[in-house]
Amino acid sequence: MPIADPPPLAARATSVGGSPVREILALTERPGVISFAGGLPAPELFDAPGLRAAYDATLGGPGAARALQYSTTEGVPELRRAVAARLSARGLATTADDLLVTTGSQQGLGLLATALLEPGDTVLVENPTYLAALQCFGLAGVRVVPVPCDAEGLLPDALARITARERPKLLYTVPTFQNPTGRTLPAGRRAEVARTAARLGLWLVEDDPYGELRYEGTAAPWIAAHPGAEDRTALLGSLSKVMAPGLRLGWLRAPAALRRAAVVAKQAADLHTSTVDQLAAAHYLGATGLDAHVARVREAYRERRDALLAGLGGALPAGSEWNRPEGGMFVWARLPAGHDAAALLGRAVAHEVAYVPGAPFFAESPDSRTLRLSFTAHTPAEITEGLGRLRRALQHP
Ligand code: PMP
What we know:
Order of helices and strands: HHEHHHEHEHEEEHEHEEEHHHEEHEEEH
Low-confidence stretches: none
Strand order of the largest sheet: 2-10-9-8-7-3-4
CATH architecture of the largest domain: 3-Layer(aba) Sandwich
CATH superfamily of the largest domain: Type I PLP-dependent aspartate aminotransferase-like (Major domain)
Helix content: 40-55%
Shape: globular
Largest sheet: 7 strands, mixed
Structural class: alpha/beta
CATH topology of the largest domain: Aspartate Aminotransferase, domain 2
Bound molecules: 4'-deoxy-4'-aminopyridoxal-5'-phosphate
Strand content: 5-15%
Mean pLDDT: 95
Number of helices: 14
Distance between the termini: 60 Å
């Protein structure tokens, strides 16, 4: 019998590669490596006993059958109400009906791409930006156009100019403690972004997984809260960084028509997010409350950030620059001219320390001198030891 090959994979599946960084970083999972690379929350800070109690309460009583049953695509009302209350308390009036529960905020991004984007559309992003957002837009077959940024994020004049010229459908932004740069967009620029979106006709996707991890300073309002942004902003949030990423719980807050389209997209993707996980999280938010836990996490991460910032100058080659984020998980650094962060990573890994080269995060014109350092997954003592290794790797090859 002649054997015919199966038809090829979809072009979109082959045009977007896996992350090159992931392959290098597999090396850093060896025991003994002090890694500033992964964006992982500190595992020893997870509130396993509190979550176990929440799952016990969910599965131990008469509600168990409901927790194990199919539920609605929008998400269980208890979790939506609890999230709405947290958003409202932080200054963005929100009801349960404004929210769609998602399987992590990453799913929210994918649903928005399905609901809003046609192949060939133009999407604006910060340069650099979150790698998996670039992947998501790549799979959607859109043209990604970067907006120039400075140390505080998007440059509003450049955004207005590029929007007028390129006629993009949406701007994707991580305005608070951005991944990868740790940068935060000041309040005035947020208002300008909202005004530009309203004036020139643009959807805004405001991705905020890190906003609650603030160690100092005061929070600027969400872009979604600004005049002009109400009817055109999708705000993505997540329990990953404040509770545990393994729960895969996030949410999408969007105007009704967009939310309805996202609900249809989610139905097609996974029907709904795990009922038992949603109910356990809702129980945790109601009974234990998240604030005490977030306060503990913040305290530990502040010390870790400070340990990294205290030692970074001694670890990086003379002439390097780096920022001092008021929160989040990342510090962004730039090596002096003539240095290539990707080329130096092998040397770092040989000294049992790792970081992520910055180049892959750029949609265009990658800056090979940049790197991202995450400070959350190691104690201050380990961070200091890791910086010693980095100094030996980078300064004394
Ligand atoms: N957006 C940004 C900017 C992120 O950094 C991450 C996680 N690294 C996500 C979205 C996805 O988070 P999750 O799906 O766990 O909520």
